[in-house]
Design a protein that fits this description.
Elements: E1 6-7, E2 17-19, H1 42-45, H2 51-58, E3 63-65, H3 68-74, E4 82-84, H4 86-92, E5 97-102, H5 113-125, E6 130-135, H6 139-151, E7 154-160, H7 161-166, H8 168-176, E8 180-184, H9 190-198, H10 206-219, E9 223-225, H11 232-237, H12 240-252, E10 258-262, H13 267-281, E11 287-293, H14 298-301, E12 304-308, E13 317-321, H15 344-351, E14 356-360, H16 362-375, H17 384-401, E15 406-411, H18 419-426, H19 437-444
Parallel strand pairs: 5-15, 6-7, 6-9, 7-8, 10-11, 10-15, 11-14
Antiparallel strand pairs: 1-4, 2-3, 4-5, 12-13
Helix pairs in contact: 3-5, 4-16, 5-6, 6-8, 9-10, 12-13, 16-17
The structure holds pyridoxal-5'-phosphate.
The site of pyridoxal-5'-phosphate has 20 residues, from helix 6 and helix 13.
Length: about 450
Amino acid sequence: MPEQVKILLNEDEMPRQWYNIQADLPKPCPPPVDKDGNPIGPDTLAPVFPMNLIEQEVSQERWIDIPEPVLDVLMQWRPSPLYRARKLEKALGTPARIYYKNEGVSPPGSHKPNTAVAQAYYNKEFGIKRLTTETGAGQWGSALAYGCKQMGLECKVYMVRISFDQKPFRKIMMQTWGANCVASPSTETQAGRAILKEYPDTPGSLGIAISEAIEAAVTGKDSRYSLGSVLNHVLMHQTVIGLEAKKQFEKVGDYPDVVIGCAGGGSNFAGISFPFICDKIAGKEIKVVAVEPSACPTLTRAPYAYDSGDVAMMTPLLPMHSLGHTFVPPPIHAGGLRYHGMAPLVSHCLKLGLIEAGALHQLECYEAALMFAYSEGFIPAPETSHAIAQVVREARLAKEEGRERVILFNWSGHGLMDLTGYQAYFDGKLEDYALPEEQMMRSLASMEGLPKPPSA
Ligand SMILES: *Cc1c(COP(=O)(O)O)cnc(C)c1O
């Protein structure tokens, strides 16, 4: 009998509740504020989000029930398998035991439908007919398109121009699930038209696309906006990943020393790590690492500040590590890791010393992605490759030290829609790129004059 590779849960072992880390934080996360620094009330958010999700956003309850209709859709691919990466371990010659949650098994191919389905459900319950959103690489847009179709909502997606051009297949996926997708900046919104007038050739950015999607939500009939990462409720919807992983570790009598996730807005990282950070707060010794690209070093180089989530400053100010809301990221292939900010809860965990952060260059990440594809077979998303590269580092360290480390990471999605990035790598067209200090200073300047978070 070959050794066990997949650790599976039955459908009846799927978590029935989400975990809300806010209940356990040693210090509360500061609230969102307006431009004068006053905490905003639920009414400010009401034109943008349905009240049932706003309630979740501010909830301090430790456990929140997952509604039956949401479980019913998640069950299509959940519980996701926990893999023991035996072939990768062998390739690395490491004494470490490496495990990964395969979130690429969902219909859109990433962790993102875990929240897309939930958000579509709550909007439907609230009487909303249409959701608007932005998308970078297209994973979020396709996840929301799928979620909306499952729940019977319309879906409108503003897709960052450069990805719209580089990744036509994602657009077709969205269409296949019945959504309407346009390149951002578009001529359909005031925000889009204003940017196009000033920068007709802009590659676009998530910040711009968010402005367009919010405008379309607040001016459209029965419409609300949906965000794929960053916000508290989004991170909470992703905790099914870590909660399942804990049960799966129990089944094989193991437990991680290190938990790793790539971090764009922070949702898949939070999803796998928060249930373990719960144990860490209670005294367990676990190293938790968020990995970002050197081209968009939010956690590792940007200040902790109050900043807006979008260019037009339509969102409230969030307490987070931010490169500044006018940040236009360099066109690296990990499109999902190019957002200017980082989830307030992830930023807060870094401040509290509950997690660590690292930044990696893209060539090292593609090398790690190939090592993974050679050994485990699955082709990772360029975002996911950042987590894999960190795993490779930890596994090599374990080898040098001759230590039996147990490493868990989130395999956040497959890269089958991102093969142009691999092509560029094979053609020798990719270069390492650290964000130049001068460019960072320029976008940081957009936060001047904004209020400062309490302990910053
Ligand atoms: C969107 C995405 C990410 C980054 O987003 P987070 O909110 O930080 O998780 C990472 N990996 C994949 C596959 C994605 O689609």
